[in-house]
Amino acid sequence: RNPVFDEETVRAMVRDNLQALTEMQLSDGGWGWFSGFGEHSSADTTANVVRGLQVAQANDVALVPGVYEKGVEWLKRYQDRQVQLLNNAPSKTKPYKTYADTLDALVYMVLVDADVANDEMQKFLYRDRNHLAVYAKALFGLALHKQQEAEQLAMIVRNIEQYLVQ
Hints:
Elements: H1 7-24, H2 43-58, H3 67-88, H4 102-113, H5 119-127, H6 134-146, H7 150-161
């Protein structure tokens, strides 16, 4: 018996797992690996959960009101902190980070899909594209495609194509 082809089983799995994700959302709006004492949200987990909620919404799955929005707000705050760290780099004002990274590309893509674009992060990701993994370039490219940023997208595609094996 394969539950993938049984629509009722799939609906039950979606319902149960959405309920579990809703219950695992932390008080700050994000998600982490563990809940309870010492809980803290992580950007990668939160971005992946919010992305999953976006896919659920696109497939007409009802979400508990506020769950998705709180996750998006957490990601916006996280991205704002990363932009500040990148802005601190030229003067080496601590804390700082020198380059935008894969996690920045993931969060940026998820937020663009939520119709939230941070122009500063877009500039940093584009500036730092040669420091990004191919996966991160692809995530950034998906966001640029949605934003209809044809010129930057063309450059990202060229950057990715250099890794194609002929």
